[in-house]
Amino acid sequence: MNVITKxxxxxxxxxxxxxxxxxxxxxxxxxxxxMNNTVLLATVTAAKEAVPGTDFMPVTVDYREKYYATGRxxxxxxxxxxxxxxxxxxxxxxxxxxxxxxxxSDYHCEVFVQIWLLSSDGKDQPDALxxxxxxxxxxxxxxxxxxxxSEVRVARVNGEYVIDPTFExxxxxxxxxxxxxxxxxxxxVEGEMKEVSEQDLIGALKAAQEAIKPMCDLxxxxxxxxxxxxxxxxxxxxxxxxxxxxxxxxxxxxxYDTIHKTLPKQERNDAFDQILADFLEKYDAAHTDLSEExxxxxxxxxxxxxxxxxxxxxxxxxxxxxxxxxxxxxxxIRPIWCEVSPLPMPHGSAIFQRxxxxxxATVTLGTKLDEKLVDGVVVRGNQRFLLHYNFPxxxxxxxxxxxxxxxxxxxxxxxxxxxLKGQIPADFPYTVRxxxxxxxxxxxxxxxxxxGGTLALMDAGVPIxxxxxGIAMGLIKNPGEDKYAILSDILGxxxxxxxxxxxxxxxxxGLTATQMDIKCDGLxxxxxEKALMQAKAGREHIMGEMMKTISEPRKEMKPQVPRIIAxxxxxxxxxxxxxxxxxxxxxxxxxxxxxxxxxxxxxxGHVQVSxxxxxxxxxxxxxxxxxxxxxxxxxxxDGVVKSIMPYGCFVEILPGKExxxxxxxxxxKRLETVExxxxxxxxxxxxxxxxxxxxxxxxxxxxxxxxDKPEGYQERPxxxxxxxxxxxxxxxxxxxxxxxxxxxxxxxxxNHDNDQQPADFTNELD
Length: 766
What we know:
Strand order of the largest sheet: 8-7-9-10-21-20-18-19
Structural class: alpha+beta
Oligomer: single chain
CATH class of the largest domain: Alpha Beta
């Protein structure tokens, strides 16, 4: 067993080790990465030959977290890992976007990269290590790969950039970005920020680049030691250089002229298709000696060469003339149109259109019960802000069915979620769901989702801190050429044929999220900074257009929005409100029609009461406050008679709190029985709290003090009690010595504090 282990040290002294040759040796390449108690296994395998007709790079990255990594059982009935979670898909995309551009353009064999989280103590974040592990596995294989890469997370904590911070450190961070890079070039960026400046982002990228260099050097050393620095030979493309030259010579000018017409997307695509179709028709007529199978191969080759022609023509138009496919200047934003409340029943809705890209954004407001439960291997908790992105085929004119959300939809939705989530106030009681349905698409639909989401949130009356706008930037830069162009608000074709897709979102005060994919080598930080500043100007323009439609959140929510009142109660009353087995809270919900939730945090109980109308909310709040309220001497209460005794009755003045209304305190006149006053169990009666016994905590109540005193009324003086005197017993009463203990009259015990018995009030009339 030839086991090789190499280590690299992070700036804070922590060590990452890469081990190969011990496990998964039948894969083309495999490594075990370890940092403290976090362990990842990365493997890579590739097919020996490409599938005929494949003209793209079929690489699949699959990141999975094993529940045993943290000593937990999976949820669900099957108790085993199932399909990839959203979080696993997002991490897979991060690795994929950094790896994919570094495969040779003519290599078409299927490649599978699998990364497993095998161990985690919940301190170090494993997603930041997945890219490093995947690239190291590639380095241990002979699969063609142009450069090794690595990925790191950069956080800014107390003004300092931290590489691969722990979960604990992230609590204090105002920046969280993932960076994938070779030792020389940034390849991928994604993250969120708390309104930081463009210069702060540049500083984070530089810190990431410095940390990644030694990781790439380690992989290069490992490949040399294993002998895998010499990659396997392949021949996945059959090329006809004569046909390539013919297509370029005959079709470059028609393509260039078509771009100059600045046609709409579908018309432009139809024109391009017609140019190629006319050429193939002439080609087939001139090559009648070729078989049908041979012509089919030539058509496939011609399609690839035609793509190169379009790429060259588009890039020369931009670099030489500053002319884009839709006629705009490089820094010009497409026309913007907005509308709020296009739909009557959603809690908030908006349409945002920029050029040929349109997002229908809607907002739904719910209660705490609508929160999303995140039950991952490492990350667990609840999300009270959700954003979902849908990209139906009709948005691009495609004729195909729509399945569930794919990796692209999840990734774009996550970016928009990151852009907006920081603007939802922490004390906003609602669970918020934003849905962006793309109705038309020609580039930058995720940024349209951010803009449309902002408008819909304001339409719903969500008190967002600040509006957010987003823009996608592009780049045209040919190798060996100093001339370059940065494009604002890119089209779909400019993304496909260009060198960069750089999305930024932000408020008027700073960046909130970013995502960057770079397809060229040698991108300097000066170019990145220029792109960021041009993006800032574009976002400000877009924000100005949005504010013309709605400039601030609505003061009132729509009538169909459930009303929610949130307040806190002392921790010791949580159990009293819930009741045994939830009996009390369930009864309150049944009686009032409201939904009540209680969470304990920070030493208090956080209560949310929601209902479709104010009456239900008020009734529920009154019941809760009744339970947690403490009776006050001198206050008047609307009590309920719970039981009647010969000496008075017990009255519930607050939920769970009863006091004695003595027979002498019912009316000004003398009563022989409580029934004489017409009082029955279940009756409501106004009472005043006269006294709280300092020793026992019992409540003494009075009804008569609320009545007008009869004219000439005088209190009858009490007869002094002498030693040995006994009051005359009422009929039925007996001496303790004359009646067995077990036959005594039962005493009534109130439950005003749930655990104390009431004291008897012995004041009697003569």
